[in-house]
Design goal:
The protein is mainly α and 100 residues long. The protein contains four helices and no strands.
């Protein structure tokens, strides 16, 4: 199982669009501003999740370089192909992830 190295670029593009949305001028109407503030909170959460995913992807790429990709960082056993297909940047097998 190989990690899709194009994924970080797409994620970085989404994070860039979220950041641009924060810099867009705000509507002077109070009701609209309240909706915009709520939207900003959602965008901030998405941005934080995206940044965490980028860190996990970078760590997975480092494991590929080190030759340890697909090996559980906790127990040292192989990570199931099915799990890697679902969460390709995971450092843990299903059993160890369940313990965390």
């Amino acid at each position: 199982m190989q990690l899709n190295q194009k994924n970080p670029t797409g994620l970085e593009n989404r994070l860039s669009r979220i950041e641009q949305d924060f810099t867009t001028p705000r509507n002077p109407d109070d009701d609209d501003r309240a909706v915009e503030r709520n939207n900003d909170e959602v965008l901030e959460e998405l941005g934080e999740a995206g940044e965490k995913e980028l860190v996990a992807i970078d760590a997975a790429l480092a494991r590929i370089d080190a030759g340890t990709f697909g090996i559980c960082a906790k127990c040292g056993q192989p990570i199931a192909e099915r799990r890697l297909g679902t969460v390709p940047h995971t450092p843990l097998c299903q059993a160890c992830a369940g313990e965390a």
